[in-house]
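Researcher: Final request for today, and then I'll write up notes for the group meeting. The sequence and the SMILES for adenosine-5'-triphosphate follow.
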Amino acid sequence: MKSQNAGRDDARHEGRAHTSSASSGAAQASAGQAGAARQASAAARQAAVVHFENVGLRYGMGPEVLRDLTFSIEPGSFQFLTGPSGAGKTTLMRLILLALKPTRGFISVFGQDVSHISGEALTGLRRRMGVVFQDFRLLDHLTTYENVALPLRVQGREEATYRSEVVELLRWVGLGERMHVLPPVLSGGEKQRAAIARALIVRPEMLLADEPTGNVDPGLGRRLLRLFIELNRLGTSVLIATHDLQLMDQVDARRLVLGEGRLHIYD
Ligand SMILES: Nc1ncnc2c1ncn2[C@@H]1O[C@H](COP(=O)(O)OP(=O)(O)OP(=O)(O)O)[C@@H](O)[C@H]1O
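Model: Predicted protein-adenosine-5'-triphosphate complex:
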């Protein structure tokens, strides 16, 4: 009896041992797969221009404006960011620009985790981005030409090395005749084009533009869109926030759609 039981116990034991060795093999395999997946996701994060993982943002004690955002912007990609007014497009842009910190989640920009980044490193990352703000942010005491040339001056370049480049870009955006006037005398559309030229002049690795065609007529909007596409062809990743369906319909590009705090992606 005993031996039989013992035998059964042994068998059970062997059975358990077998199961446990199988499950430890499976566990190792799945740990290996998880490790490989982690490595692959770290590599993807490293390669992305922007990577968000479960990012949430609330202003003060208010409700979460953005919830569980997980997405990447790849090098050399072109995408629109859209959604109803108040959906959080500007907020998302400000997170990418590192002008806001997320309330939760993880953000990396140009492969760098930005949660504990120094002020100096942050300035270095921002210099790699061109930004067109909704309110233009031109300096009123500088001429249109000087506003557009400013990022190059900040880089320490001599005027002789960039003058013709700035003039050519200003002509391209239709401001050839408005180069020497101050922003307060420019129309809304002219200010917008000056702001776009200032963002493009440094050939940024990433361009972020918040409603960049909001103040121009459809013809000029198409021309500006061509400029963004050309910049993208030269390798810049482009993210354009817009409500303008007609503008989006002109390009077969990825759409990031914000609604009720969530992001839906249409490739
Ligand atoms: N500084 C702030 N403090 C508190 N709430 C804010 C602040 N900035 C934005 N919000 C709120 O966050 C939400 C998202 O605003 P955001 O400006 O990002 O939306 P949007 O999609 O860019 O809107 P629009 O298309 O009208 O420009 C809105 O409810 C807005 O009221």
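Model: The first strand starts at residue 50 and ends at 58. The chain has eight helices and ten strands.
Researcher: Thanks, that's everything.
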